[in-house]
Amino acid sequence: MKELSEKLLRAVEIAEPTLRNVSEAESNIPVLKGGWSRKQVIGHLIDSASNNHQRFVRAALQGSVEFPGYDQDGSVSVQDVQSARWPLLVALWANYNLYLSHVIAHIPTPKLEAPCRIGENQPVTLMFLAEDYVTHLLHHLSQIGASV
Fold it and tell me: Is the dihedral of CA 97, 98, 100, 101 positive or negative?
């Protein structure tokens, strides 16, 4: 898990300066099909960090977990991410992921096979969730011009 943790750490260290250079005005412009702006994508990634933080810790503690599904459009909407200040979103995203890098590095090896069910999906292992989390983050960073 150290390697995955370091991959996440490097992604934040590379993407954060690029994201900080995006102006408030640019952060508001829709950049994805369906109309999501950079703000909304980063808000979605903050949600992903928050949801997965709970999944990682609870699966390591309990040995298995079941979580509800995630309504990404509803979550971005109800939080009104679009009206949040860009520097706040970037700082929260970066710092949350720096912490998640630390958490991932310290997941006990015997717990990596813990089964995790999200919504109606088939169970996956805690290791899969952590790997998928980083893959998901990298995908969205690429979409908004902060490729790693």
Answer: positive
61-103, pLDDT tens digit by residue? 998 899 988 888 888 889 999 999 999 999 999 999 999 999 9
Say if residue 40's pLDDT is above 90. yes
Mean pLDDT check: name the lowest of 50-54, 69-73, 83-87, 136-140. 69-73
Domain boundaries, the chain: 2-143
What pTM value is reported for the model?
Answer: 0.94
Give the three-state DSSP class for 88: helix
Integer Cα distance of 104 and 129 in angstroms: 11
CATH topology of domain 2-143: Four Helix Bundle (Hemerythrin (Met), subunit A) (1.20.120)
- Rounded CA-CA distance 148/146 in Å is 6
The token pair at 118 is 């999200």
Q: Are 146 and 15 in contact (CB under 8 A)?
A: yes
**C-alpha span between 61 and 83 (Å, rounded):** 36
**Residue 148 pLDDT > 80:** no
